[in-house]
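Re: the 318-residue chain
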Amino acid sequence: MYHPTTRVLAVLELLQTHGRMSGADMAARLGVDARTLRRYIVTLEEIGIPITTERGRHGGYALMPGFKLPPMMFSEDEALALSIGLLAARSLGFSEAAPAVASAQAKLERIMPDALKKRVRAVDQTVRLDMVRAVAPADGDALVILSSAALAQRRVHLRYRAPDGAQSEREFDPFGLAFWGGCWYAIGMCHLRHSMRSFRLDRIIKAEPRNVAFARPDRFDALDYLRRSMSSMPRTHAFEVLLHTDLSTASKHFFADMGVFEQGDGAVILRGHTDHIDWCAGHLAGMPFEFEVRAPEALRLSVMRLGQRLLRMSSLPT
């Protein structure tokens, strides 16, 4: 059986999660009658939690708008997820986020029992994420403005600095944002170039919201688009390789910008571009599965030379 105090807290959790619930729905979830539910509501009101009551057939209960709830309690799994999330936020390179991360961590620890607190601290002090190449925007404004604009499907005005230092301005419809290769990108329709473009957030000088609506493509995946556009950028050599493995295994063993994978008949086709044929051959040679180079001939010859060199090295006297 549940203790009455537990049920009272369950009422608070339901109101916090759903915003507003009918008395019948709440009573059914708690397994109590309407009179008992009303006693729980009164108990919450007596300890200072303001609850609005709407009477009648379609009435219900809701927390007073603007009311700050007491600190939430977390399970061990939830606390672990939060601590890893805070660790990731700290590792992404946002200098402005550091005080906020430390403050959030301190608030979490204040409401945790000692055993759970030790586990969270263990994650913070012993776990490290490989984000040493992370390049953050000069401030967090661009990330906030562009993500909000993407959600609301509202245009922004960008002032942007190219890698060579040249500055430009443009109207931009942000479809989404992605973190890839250590950098943040905004992807969407550029009205200066009249085509899809991606912009690094650390090169955005200023982003200003515009009161102009746009329609984002259905199911647009910013990270998927970014990967595909980066892998198809024109380079010196286009290549096509048949990988004798499955799609999941192939994608785990190559860099995200190596190329585009396509499931074939019993194998995976990798198409991409590279400026360094010998590097590409060496990367392919390190795969734990067999492969066939379809094109170009230069890559096939590079793989052959590498194989011959390895054979010579393996036969040298020790």
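Residues 4-63 form a domain with the Arc Repressor Mutant, subunit A fold (CATH 1.10.10.10).
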